[in-house]
Design brief:
The protein is α/β, with parallel strands linked by helices. The protein contains seven helices and nine strands. Pfam families: Methyltransf_PK (PF05891).
């Protein structure tokens, strides 16, 4: 078969994507279902992280067009740390999406002792297909680094349709130090640059309406940024 055959190239691309998802899944199979496990040994930053997220969400509710407060979804929820710590206190209904069954069971266990209402989806974000116009807030944190670019854009496009008219997508992710994306072969993750994220947001038809750097994290960690996104109905340029 010709090396330039588009069918061959597509098959090779699919194989790379599948292998990366298998590798990251296997990595997380060996991680303890604890806060320290979820945060890569930096469990001590959890309170700072939650405080930063709460403060950012508060500013989102100061926008002229505010999202509702009825239903949210926690994407890449792990053991439910974010839902347990604050989403559950803001929204009457919070759904959780997590591909690791052990983590999701731990989340169910912890949230069973609260007033939590919501569904649990045992699936990766690349395979998550939410209903249309059901979410006021879609929270996506420290999980996009495991999605290939094509799947990330497709995920965001599905999220656009899942938002209520005034809803927002909140993204909180590590940002690479320079302009080059950084690959970690140990867990098949990609830490993207700021420009990469902006390009992907644009391709998905999303615009940044607010952003902020997470304050007070240890200097040895990546910079972490929070983005509030909404559908962009203006003409888009796709590079």
């Amino acid at each position: 078969m010709d090396s330039d055959d588009p069918c061959q190239e597509a098959q090779a691309s699919e194989a790379v994507q599948e292998n990366s998802y298998v590798a990251s899944s296997k990595y997380w199979e060996h991680v303890d279902p604890t806060v320290d496990g979820m945060l890569g040994g930096f469990g001590n930053i959890s309170n700072l992280d939650i405080q930063g997220s709460q403060n950012f969400l508060t500013t989102v509710y100061q926008l002229l067009v505010k999202p509702g407060r009825q239903r949210a979804v926690d994407c890449g929820a792990g053991i439910g740390r974010i839902t347990f710590s604050f989403l559950n206190k803001v929204f009457p209904v919070v759904d959780l999406v997590e591909q690791n069954k052990t983590f999701l069971e731990e989340a169910q266990k912890q949230l069973s002792a609260t007033s939590h209402k919501g569904q649990f989806f045992n699936v990766g974000l690349q395979d998550f297909h939410p209903e249309r116009e059901v979410y006021d807030v879609i929270w996506v944190q420290w999980v996009l680094l495991y999605l290939q670019d094509e799947d990330l854009v497709a995920f965001f496009q599905r999220c656009r349709l899942a938002l209520k008219p005034s809803g927002v997508i909140i993204v909180k992710e590590n940002i690479a130090h320079g302009e080059t994306d950084e690959i970690d072969v140990s867990d098949a993750s990609v830490t993207r640059s700021m420009s990469s994220f902006k390009t992907l947001f644009n391709k998905a038809g999303l615009k940044i309406i607010k952003d902020k750097k997470q304050p007070r994290f240890p200097k040895e960690l990546y910079d972490v940024y929070m983005f509030a996104l909404r559908p962009d109905f203006a003409p888009r340029t796709i590079s």
